[in-house]
Design goal:
By secondary structure, the protein is of the alpha/beta class. The chain has a domain at about 70-180: 3-Layer(aba) Sandwich (Rossmann fold). It is built from eight helices and five strands.
Length: about 190
């Protein structure tokens, strides 16, 4: 059996992964007032801060899956009706998403669906992020008991299967942003800075 190389040793010479900051769609949001809750004076300032670094962790561009537990995280004491962010169970996805969610005290459920450790972009290409896998995660984590009345928020990269997920899972589905750093803009009305 080949030796397992720790992630920290693999990443020293690797390029950073694309976190899709350049795909943030500011027109999706109303006036730019929302960004002031997070500190910047406008949404454009927020995007420029993200591009300059410091907000999101630097993650390596890996060629192999890095799975973490496919589980439900309950952040900031969520209750039924609070948003359920649905994503894959990649270590890198988890690292970026939790870095963004660490900036708020707003409640969220985060459902890490089994994608064999593929990042969401790769999971869409390899078809490891599917409506059936989301349904299995919902059932396994007993989400109905914890988050009834909530909507599933899908990453923007999964938009093409949002209707199928809604149909198979029986939950209302909203398509969120492609870039996780956009979550403060998407939830501007309920996003409370940490």
């Amino acid at each position: 059996m080949p030796a397992v190389v720790p992630l920290r040793n693999m990443t020293n010479d690797m390029a950073d992964a694309d976190l899709y900051i350049d795909r943030i769609d500011l027109e999706r949001y109303s006036s730019g007032v929302e960004c002031k809750k997070c500190g910047p004076q406008s949404c454009l300032d927020l995007v420029e801060k993200m591009k300059a670094g410091g907000f999101l962790p630097s993650v390596p561009q890996l060629q192999v899956p890095r799975p973490v537990a496919a589980e439900l995280l309950e952040l900031n004491d969520p209750a039924p009706g609070d948003p359920v962010l649905v994503t894959g169970n990649s270590e890198l996805t988890q690292q970026v998403l939790l870095a963004v969610l660490a900036t708020t005290i707003s409640p969220f459920f985060v459902l890490f669906t089994d994608t064999r450790g593929d990042t969401l972009d790769m999971a869409m290409i390899l078809e490891s992020f599917t409506a059936e896998r989301v349904r299995l995660s919902i059932e396994k984590q007993r989400l109905e008991e914890k988050a009834s009345g909530s909507s599933l928020i899908l990453p923007g990269l999964a938009s093409k299967i949002s209707g199928r997920i809604e149909s198979v899972c029986g939950w209302p589905v909203k398509v969120g942003p492609v870039c996780a750093a956009e979550l403060p803009l998407l939830f501007s009305e309920s996003w409370e800075p940490a």
